[in-house]
Amino acid sequence: MNDVIANRALGWVPAFLIAAVLGGPAPGAWAARTFIDIYSPGARKIRLAIPELRPLEGRRDPVGLQIAQVVQEDLARTGLFFVQDRKSYPENPLQAGIRLEEQKFPEWLNVVKVEALIKGGYTLSGDSIVAEMFLYDTARSAQELGKRYQYPRSSWRLMAHRFANAVLERFTGEKGVFDTQIAFVSRRSATERGEIYIMDWDGADLRRVTRNGMGNNAPSWSPDGRWLAYSSFKSNPPGVFLLPTNGGREFRVSAANAQGIGGSFSPDSRLFAYSEQIGRTYQLMVYDMATRAKSRLTRSFGIDVSPSFSPDGKKITFTSGRSGGPQIYVMGADGSDPRRISFQGTYNTEPRWSPRGDRIAYSTRVTDNVSIDIVTVNPDGSDLRRLTGGQGKNETPSWSPDGKHLVFSSDRTGRKEIYVMTAAGTELKRLQLGQEPAWSPALQ
Amino acid sequence: MFRAGSWKRLGMAMLGVAVLVATAGCAQQAVKSDEAVSSAPGARSGGMSPGSMTEAERQRRRAAFRSGMADFENALVYFDFDKSAVRPDMRPVLDAKAKFLLDNPTVKIQVEGHCDERGTVQYNVALGHRRSQSAKDYLVSLGVDASRIDTVSYGKERPVDPRHNELAWSKNRRGKFNVTGGIPAGMN
């Protein structure tokens, strides 16, 4: 019954991708600019244009427009950009040049008010695609970025995401996370039990990980990308399993004779904290990946579940029912000094510590007892901000590795689906049917 | 308080046993009449040896066991929202289950704890566990050996009614009982 999965199933990056820098971008005017942070939804957006990529040799292929659309979508969903409508572009992208000296910057700047212009071209040969892509500052008539990529043709999406990463880094000084993935639980039919799936951050390239037919929950990645943890009803008692992402054999991390659920890794990927049945209740345990030693973290009479480490590894936030209903707590990573941080609402669960360390996201049941919203708070529980607005049940928030986005599930349309939004609650996008999403680490 | 309650429940269960024995008069009479008819030498009184039973008697006993087991497995125990304590109105259901288990001391069971769809996956797994434990504790308090009762929680993963309303939720907050082993020979 072990789910042994191949490298490809998790969609890890092929090792033979090539990226080269084209031209020498001048010291970036944009990099030096101070853009208002993504956390401020009122920030003025940068006007961006990205015409269809043109064939550098041979015939036009749909991939030219597809790459442009993926890059556009990635950048738009940061909330930093306004993407100019393609129909208003002042030139035919199949005839216009892509090099710096071929650009008609005054038209872009003055007629359609575009500040950032992305141009690109591609050559398809056999199973590979070679693409040249540029980012121009129309106001300075300057090249900010130039890249040449050679990728397997089937990996054109990954190539587009990588270029969008580089563009975002040029603007913010921080690389984007557009090449990351999201693990989640989905039932593809009403009668099917939950299986673990993985998709790209934009919902594309859906891959199935488990196929045991018994119900699976709570996927979670190790920050080094080597492990995918999940809980499964495939065994008796049900337990928590750690699956190597390189295709090796999984092992059961929770006790063989007790039921276990959930869990997440420490930032250095050396510890895995999870919840296990002890007597009448569930308590938090921690497993040392190197020594294989297990120890108990909490000693309460309540239900303790859903641990999440702070990015410095020194603290853990978790859900506990020790005061009656479930509430959010923070304690030392050794289990010391647990303190309750949620005081509004009677049902607060699933806390996840932001990789930036400054906020904790969790789901809170609204007073009507039906809807559940995603909120974020400071690690001491202060400054509660509601990110979803009482539309159905919004649950299981998980941060992007750069802390700028949250993925979560919502049944606002009547079915449980995965959504992504910025950490400010803007740029909402629906991805796939499913629940319990977990964002992968950034992979180099 | 807990002890007093347990004794009271045990008393009620004993009463339940008496009532059940009385209402099971038909089966008892059938056994007696079979004994009377049996003239085989060496037939033991009480008719407990399968070898001494007629085929008709074996069929009757098997049917009675199968019926008792079906009742045991079909009757669900329901819980209040976000609670794991056994509701007073659910005690008779558990009393009947204890009777079946005490009458069939080889039988082993698993108690499944389930929750409604409200609340989150992981917390509900722990809550479902508490529900299965509460049911197990109740059966143990009536004299059933704890080692015969296994528990498992499915949280909110396996609803019987997938709808999103109070009626569905009240049906889904349940304890389900499965016979997992120890069925006496010939009763299968």
Concise account of the structure shown:
The complex is a heterodimer of chains A (444) and B (188). Helices cover 10% and strands 39% of the residues of chain A. Chain A contains five helices and 31 strands.
Description:
The complex is a heterodimer of chains A (444) and B (188). Chain A is mainly beta and 444 residues long. Chain A has 2 domains: 158 residues, TolB, N-terminal domain (Rossmann fold); 259 residues, TolB, C-terminal domain (Neuraminidase, 6 Propeller), CATH 2.120.10.30. Chain A is built from 5 helices and 31 strands. In chain A, strands 1, 2, 3, 4, 5, 6 and 7 form a 7-stranded mixed β-sheet that branches. In chain A, strands 10-9-8-31 form a 4-stranded antiparallel β-sheet, with no helix packed on it. In chain A, a hairpin with a 6-residue loop joins strand 9 and strand 10. The longest helix of chain A is centred in the middle third of the chain and has 17 residues. Chain A starts with 6 loop residues before the first helix and ends in a 5-residue tail after the last strand. The N terminus of chain A is likely disordered. Chain B is of the alpha+beta class and 188 residues long. Chain B folds into 2 domains: 36 residues; 121 residues, 60s Ribosomal Protein L30, Chain: A. Chain B is 51% helix and 13% strand. Chain B has 6 helices and 4 strands, in the order αααβαβαβαβ. The longest helix of chain B has 22 residues. Chain B is elongated and about 55 Å long. The N terminus of chain B is likely disordered. Classes of the chains: A mainly beta (444), B alpha+beta (188). At the A-B interface, loops of A face helix 5 and strand 3 of B.
